[in-house]
Amino acid sequence: QASKPIFTFDQLVIPKSVEEDLLLAVDLIKLESKVFDDWGLREIEPFPRTALNFHGAPGTGKTLAAHAIASKIERSILVASYAQIESMYHGEGPKNVEAIFLAAERDSAVLFLDEADSLLSKRLTNVTQGSEQAINSMRSQLLICLERFKGIVIFSTNLVQNYDKAFETRVRHVHFPMPDEICRREIWRRHLPEKLPVTSDVSLDQLAKTEDVCGRDIKNAVIDAAMRVAREGKECLALSDFLNSIERIKKARINVEVGSPAGEELSPEEKEQVQKKVQETVAERDK
């Protein structure tokens, strides 16, 4: 069921280039009547559509941005994930895809499909199992719905490497990078409430120097640090409390990515894996 968006553009902390991409998408939506009706382009495209793919690491603001767009154009938002579509009724994925699009059109809502990596990937060839056929059927149904849908669709993906070419021609891609130092400083600032007791050594500039963290990591680090300080019976949070928490969160994230239980000491082989993973992540981000 569609609901009122809970975030606005004022709450987004993203690079200017990404913000410009989002505002362009908003303008394309607002200018549809002028371009397609007043300027006659509906003659060559009777059913103009706006489909966006927000891609990037988890916690970089994709969900917030989807809500912000819905808020900007004053529409409700309908949120669904691949897991929900697949698990509603076993084997009825295509029907569920169609039902979600119909619900969004009925409510004039922005449709936000979260965790859509599997939906946008290349369709499988040499299908041998029923589950593989079900995935292909969902992807085919999604293409049909995109052609017919008169509203706005936003996909959110993390690690899709091979998009189906059929989607490439129908979707505008917007990349959400990990925040740079300027963005990290602003995110830290917004996550330190005035009531939060901190010592004089807490510096936004120093906190912002911690690399390879996203907004979600920073939020979790603040909460983790506050809980640990309160548990220890201390009255103020020091810079070291925040730095220790953010390092714990970074380590836990990397451990999960390489399959090592969080909190355990890594073996030399695992440390080598972590180092390789970090290098690959940095290289991918710098492309």
Compact summary:
By secondary structure, this protein is an alpha/beta fold. The protein contains 13 helices and five strands.
CATH architectural category of the largest domain: 3-Layer(aba) Sandwich
Helix/strand-derived class? Answer: alpha/beta
| SSE order | HHEHEHHEHHEHEHHHHH
The CATH C-level name of the largest domain is Alpha Beta
CATH superfamily of the largest domain, called what?
P-loop containing nucleotide triphosphate hydrolases
Explained architecture:
The chain is an alpha/beta fold and 287 residues long. It has two domains: 9-176, Rossmann fold; 181-285, Helicase, Ruva Protein, domain 3 (Orthogonal Bundle). It is built from 13 helices and five strands. It has helices spanning 16-30, 32-38, 62-72, 82-87, 93-106, 117-120, 130-148, 165-168, 181-190, 204-208, 215-231, 239-258, 268-285; strands spanning 50-56, 77-81, 110-114, 152-157, 172-176. Strands 2-3-4-1-5 form a five-stranded parallel β-sheet, sandwiched between helices.
Question: Layout of SSEs?
Answer:
Layout: H1 16-30, H2 32-38, E1 50-56, H3 62-72, E2 77-81, H4 82-87, H5 93-106, E3 110-114, H6 117-120, H7 130-148, E4 152-157, H8 165-168, E5 172-176, H9 181-190, H10 204-208, H11 215-231, H12 239-258, H13 268-285
Helix pairs in contact: 5-7, 11-12, 12-13
Short key terms for the protein model shown above:
287 residues; alpha/beta; Rossmann fold; Helicase, Ruva Protein, domain 3; 2 domains; 52% helix
